[in-house]
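Open question from group meeting: does this chain pack into something compact, or does most of it stay loose? Before anyone orders reagents, we agreed to write out a predicted structure and look at it together. Recording both the input and the output here so the notebook holds the full record.
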Amino acid sequence: MQAALRRSTRAGCVAVILLLSACGGDEPSYPSGSLEATEIDLAPAIAGRVLAVRPRLGDRVAPGDTLVVLDTRVLALQREQSLAALASLDAQQAVSAADLQAAERSRALAATTLERVRALHERGSASAQQLDDALAARDVAASRASAARHRLEAYPAERDRLVAVIAVTDRQLEDGALVAPVAGTVLMRAIEAGETAVPGVPALRIADLSRLELRVYLEAESLDRVRLGQDIRVRVDALGGPPLRGRVAWISAEAEFTPKNAQTRDARAQLVYAVKIEVPNPDGRLHIGMTAEAEI
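Structure tokens returned:
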């Protein structure tokens, strides 16, 4: 499961800069913009045939809810295959450990025999051929013991490899279920059961609509009118009625040129600071893209 965060900037009335200096010293200004939400694109991390897509457009989801289920039967079989290979490797390791013990005993016996033949040869009771044969037998036994030891030493690395393969498969099996990372509402459903999921291609888009954000822009001279946590009255064009209560959630620390969608060329040439105002949406009346203005 891979999640790609982006900010929605839907069509509608875009951010407009109302110059506070033109309004007179203490007169309020009414910068406007569009309501936004943090949208999360949910894309599968693995390829696979889609077995189920559980939420519908507009459904609310909770953190940890399973949203999309992929067919992972091949991965499950591969895991069983790796487990069988691991069990076989452990059995082979036990056999190799026994072989090493036998080879070490043979090497020790060959070394003892060589010493006896050498002593007999020194007393003239054994021929040079017998000494050579005993020496060769000792060397062969030592070589076999060394080979058995090296085979035994290779098993831990192979076992670690198989354990890693199983861990990777387990993670892929987990990725076979796309889960909601946060609470939100389904805004886009781009895949259906029976289709093949492509890694990295968004299947669903969700956003938490319980709070929307209004982004407005202020000149530097007007920044002293706002502070973090300050209550701000917000009027939403589509709703009418009394203003809503918003809260200043973020004030940019860096100036930027007025966005290109400002209405006049002079306004676009000004340096301004972005301000985000959180607007609660408990009853769901607010929607992404609605135009609103803040009283500052």
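Observations to bring back to the group:
The domain at 40-70+177-205 is CATH 2.40.50.100 (OB fold (Dihydrolipoamide Acetyltransferase, E2P)).
The helical segments are 73-122, 128-175, 265-268.
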